[in-house]
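Figure 3 (text version): structure tokens given as input.
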């Protein structure tokens, strides 16, 4: 029999108005019997989110979200159904029904265990605050952790000896319970049990209700292992638990983002720098359960990994584990730090502003798959290229959702063909800058074009870019190409085109596909175009958002990389005024369309001349036209 009967759930809904639960997150205004507010599930400027207490329901006319108090907690806080019901039952003062006597006994045992873990946590906290353990306090100061951060995550210290065991015994805790909870360890040779954690900085691990279920300990000296985690217990399963979830949950929903770091200290450093939506797995790779928990919190968590070989391998393992589970709107993004740096190092060296830019520029899953496969083996022969494609195809085929699988296959195939079958050689090193962190932060070798998907054509993503369904453009036909004889004359016009789009990035999504078809006679122009198309993709993938520091830095870097800024501004002031920074967006749009139309007309004339010449050659040779 189900634990929560329809009768019990109806009582719960009757006692708690839906507006009471929704009102904790949404500012509601009453209009008659209903209350209205801005929908918490999507961005909107005018209220379309309705709450009706008589019906006990909420409904959004914008995104279609609909439900009651239970589904609201599940959707906004990532709670499971039982967790949401338990939270609401506590709010209503209702006693939860037990499904059977054995379940009640297990619940009592879990409660008893949770109380023991809470006692242990308080003991560790008191030890760190006592002032008696100078090594622990020196370590905390050296890492720059503030008292506020220590208190938020309830960081403590496990002293030498068996002091925790003695403390718990004095409070009536049985040794067998301490062993079951991995607080003490009993040797197989019959010796006395001893404290499992000794001389370590302690990080309590909570369940989703905030109850302590395990610990992680970091050694203060050079002893091994550096980190020691609780083994699995009746309360704790490391494959489905994330450190820092309780502290991060509200920030995750406020920022609509979750940042997955590698360890405890990473989470604390990020939170202290203002990134309170950080959490971490517990000494293990991300599992399917971890991913399911993350996706209940946010549709695209970001994995922040160290830039060493272990971090890169962890990123690829996470990508391969996530691929079969991808769904429309449900994926991962990847932020790889410079080699040899963890989040704490990066924040100290470059600050939270630079980290925020890097976070906005985290690469999507499809780029991670491409870059990781490209780094696995050389692709300098047809056979190796075919092996590379086979690897990509095998990963793509693992995606269960047919629409996502099709989209991946099309994008990766387009990049593959652009890289290996382009009519012109691949360009040189990509422009540096924070936007493409997987190339720009790793020095000259890793910043090569190999790290950039589809960078084989002079116009960046080439055929791969045209698969973006939301980018609208006129049908410009085949690639717009300037003939070599006119290259020098058209360079000024092409420079004006790119400058106009740099100064008016709001036009990029409208002209991205047309821009990707333009042939650029100079490599610097082609590289500049590539950066603009990256920016267009960023705008499109962020729902049209433009006012971001990452976008401004990206376009500024693209312009500076061209290396002739003064000449360009003079050009805009005289020959191509629509490209000026002072021109309006409407003026820039008109100038861009006129230039592209002229380029297309010239192409049509060139094609007509080529056809005439070909017919003339055939007549001279005696062939039939």
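Below: residues designed for each position.
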């Amino acid at each position: 029999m189900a634990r929560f009967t329809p009768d019990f759930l109806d009582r719960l809904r009757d006692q708690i108005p839906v507006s009471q639960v929704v009102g904790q997150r949404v500012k509601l205004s009453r209009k008659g019997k209903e209350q209205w507010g801005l929908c918490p599930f999507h961005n909107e400027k005018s209220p379309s989110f309705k709450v009706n207490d008589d019906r006990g329901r909420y409904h959004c006319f914008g995104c279609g979200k609909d439900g009651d108090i239970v589904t609201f907690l599940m959707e906004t806080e990532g709670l499971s159904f039982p967790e949401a019901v338990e939270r609401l039952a506590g709010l209503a003062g209702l006693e939860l029904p037990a499904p059977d006597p054995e379940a009640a006994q297990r619940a009592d045992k879990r409660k008893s265990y949770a109380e023991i873990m809470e006692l242990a946590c308080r003991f560790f906290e008191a030890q760190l605050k006592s002032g008696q353990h100078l090594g622990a306090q020196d370590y905390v100061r050296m890492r720059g952790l503030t008292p506020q951060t220590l208190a938020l995550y309830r960081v403590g210290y496990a002293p030498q000896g068996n002091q925790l065991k003695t403390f718990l015994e004095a409070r009536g805790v049985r040794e067998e319970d301490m062993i079951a909870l991995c607080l003490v360890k009993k040797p197989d040779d019959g010796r006395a049990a001893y404290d499992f954690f000794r001389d370590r900085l302690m990080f309590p691990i909570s369940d989703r209700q905030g109850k302590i279920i395990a610990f992680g300990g970091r050694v203060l000296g050079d002893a091994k292992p550096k980190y020691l985690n609780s083994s699995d217990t009746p309360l704790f399963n490391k494959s489905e638990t994330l450190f820092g979830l309780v502290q991060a949950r509200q920030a995750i929903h406020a920022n609509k983002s979750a940042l997955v770091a590698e360890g405890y200290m990473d989470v604390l450093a990020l939170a202290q720098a203002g990134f309170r939506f950080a959490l971490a797995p517990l000494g293990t790779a991300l599992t399917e359960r971890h991913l399911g928990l993350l996706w209940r919190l946010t549709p695209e968590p970001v994995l922040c990994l160290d830039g060493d070989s272990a971090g890169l391998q962890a990123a690829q393992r996470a990508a391969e584990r996530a691929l079969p589970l991808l769904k429309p709107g449900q994926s991962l993004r990847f932020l790889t730090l410079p080699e040899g740096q963890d989040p704490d190092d990066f924040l100290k060296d470059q600050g939270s502003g630079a980290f925020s830019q890097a976070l906005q520029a985290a690469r999507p899953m499809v780029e991670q798959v491409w870059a990781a496969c490209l780094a696995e083996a050389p692709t300098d022969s047809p056979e190796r290229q075919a092996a590379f494609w086979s690897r990509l195809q095998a990963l793509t085929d693992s995606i269960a959702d047919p629409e996502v699988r099709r989209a991946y296959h099309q994008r990766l195939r387009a990049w593959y063909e652009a890289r290996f079958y382009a009519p012109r050689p691949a360009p040189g090193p990509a422009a540096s800058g924070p936007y493409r962190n997987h190339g720009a932060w790793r020095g000259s070798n890793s910043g090569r074009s190999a790290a950039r998907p589809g960078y084989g054509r002079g116009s960046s993503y080439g055929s791969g870019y045209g698969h973006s369904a939301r980018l609208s453009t006129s049908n410009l036909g085949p690639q717009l190409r300037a003939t070599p004889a006119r290259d020098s004359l058209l360079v000024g016009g092409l420079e004006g085109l790119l400058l106009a789009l740099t100064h008016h990035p709001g036009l990029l999504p409208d002209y991205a596909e047309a821009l990707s078809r333009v042939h650029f006679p100079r490599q610097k122009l082609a590289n500049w175009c590539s950066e603009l198309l990256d920016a267009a993709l960023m705008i499109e993938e962020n729902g049209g958002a433009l006012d971001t520091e990452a976008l401004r830095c990206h376009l500024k870097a693209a312009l500076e990389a061209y290396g002739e800024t003064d000449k360009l501004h003079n050009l805009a002031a005289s020959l191509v005024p629509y490209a000026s920074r002072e021109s309006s967006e409407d003026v820039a749009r008109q100038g861009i369309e006129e230039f592209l139309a002229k380029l297309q007309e010239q192409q049509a004339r060139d094609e007509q001349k080529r056809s005439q010449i070909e017919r003339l050659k055939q007549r001279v040779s005696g062939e039939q036209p």
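The chain is about 50% helix and 10% strand.
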